[in-house]
Design a protein that fits this description.
The chain has 339 residues and is of the alpha/beta class. The chain contains 8 helices and 12 strands.
Length: 339
């Protein structure tokens, strides 16, 4: 019968043999070259191999499997290769973008000379006061210029500098057509503004924007907004003319008793409100402040009565003034002989 002491000695001898064999082969502890044949030692007849439990066998199998995986890959190389590859890709991208940036100008100039991109047609729409020829000259656009070399944003900015142009849109219709669409201001009234050397009439649009001076020979058939100093900033002027422009919008309905061409002047006052004057009769019509639509409707009915033939009572020729703000829901028509 094998004693416990004999088993211990046998295990020590097996361990010594394994250590000696490893030193001879110069293989690192816990690793074995791929394809190497493991060395075995003989065992004496009176020695029995050590039996391992099932748990120990499974653990040993997992350890061997892990060692094989470690031998089949190199973590250090993988860890180092990833940042190097990323740096290489970024370097290539930077170089390509730099070359493209440097080459953009020469490429555009070279392609711009191609006849295929020469402007053959220039379409300009929206002109009423301005003309296509004037806008082509202003924008510096020429036929046979390169459509590729043009900057639509730059042309739009130049066109908007013209006092009559409110909006401008420039598009390229490839390969050889330039499309320009403008929107001009529409004058609603005239205002007096202070300029170097004195005062001058300017056009006022429906939003209260002063946009262009009245040139010699320019159209003057618009109501005049008075009562301003001529030095107001844009926002103050817009607020001051709000009610006058609201009345103008209603008068444009061209009621036969109050047509647009009969409205001569609209005087605005910060305290007293608005006073209007007709072209054919000089008496004032005091509108006051607020309720413009209501007062306009009442004025139409009053004028309808006053424009009737003589002999049927008071006529418009007898009127000294009309107060639309006399009392609530009341209109005062003063007779010229009543003082």
């Amino acid at each position: 019968m094998v004693s416990l002491k004999g088993v211990v000695n046998a295990l020590k001898n097996i361990g010594s043999l394994f250590r000696l064999q490893k030193k001879k082969r110069k293989v690192p502890s816990g690793a074995m070259s791929r394809g190497a044949v493991p060395a075995f030692t003989s065992m004496s007849a009176n020695q029995e191999p050590k039996r391992l439990s099932m748990a120990a066998r499974i653990k040993s199998w997992f350890q061997r499997s892990a060692r094989r995986k470690d031998l089949n890959r190199s973590p250090v190389v993988v860890a180092r290769s990833t940042p190097k590859r990323l740096i290489l890709v970024l370097s290539v991208v930077i170089v390509v973008l730099s070359l493209a940036f440097l080459a953009y100008g020469p490429i555009v100039r070279a392609v711009a000379d191609i006849k295929f991109f020469k402007i053959r047609e220039i379409s300009i729409t929206g002109c009423r006061v301005t003309t296509p020829a004037l806008l082509r000259e202003l924008a510096g656009v020429r036929y046979q210029a390169s459509l590729l070399a043009l900057s639509p944003d730059h042309i739009e900015a130049i066109l908007r500098m013209h006092p009559w142009i409110a909006k401008a849109e420039v598009k390229r219709d490839w390969p050889d057509v330039l499309i320009v669409t403008i929107q001009e201001y529409a004058p609603e009234a005239l205002v007096v503004r202070e300029v170097s050397g004195g005062s001058q009439f300017f056009y006022l649009d429906k939003s209260g924007v002063v946009f262009a001076p009245v040139e010699p020979g320019g159209e003057l058939d618009f109501p005049v907004v008075t009562g301003l100093t001529g030095k107001e900033d844009a926002e103050t002027l817009r607020k001051a003319t709000t009610e006058a422009l609201a009345l103008l919008k209603l008068v444009r309905q061209n009621n036969p008793n109050l047509p647009l061409q009969n409205l001569s002047e609209m005087h605005v006052d910060q305290d007293a409100g608005m006073t209007i004057y007709l072209a054919d009769y000089p008496f004032p019509i005091y509108f006051g402040k607020g309720e413009i639509r209501t007062k306009y409707s009442r004025l139409k009915r009053v004028l309808e009565v006053l424009y009737k033939e003589a002999g049927q009572g008071m006529t418009i020729a007898d009127v000294a003034y009309i107060r639309m703000d006399y009392l609530e829901n009341k209109v005062l028509v003063a007779h010229s002989g009543s003082g």
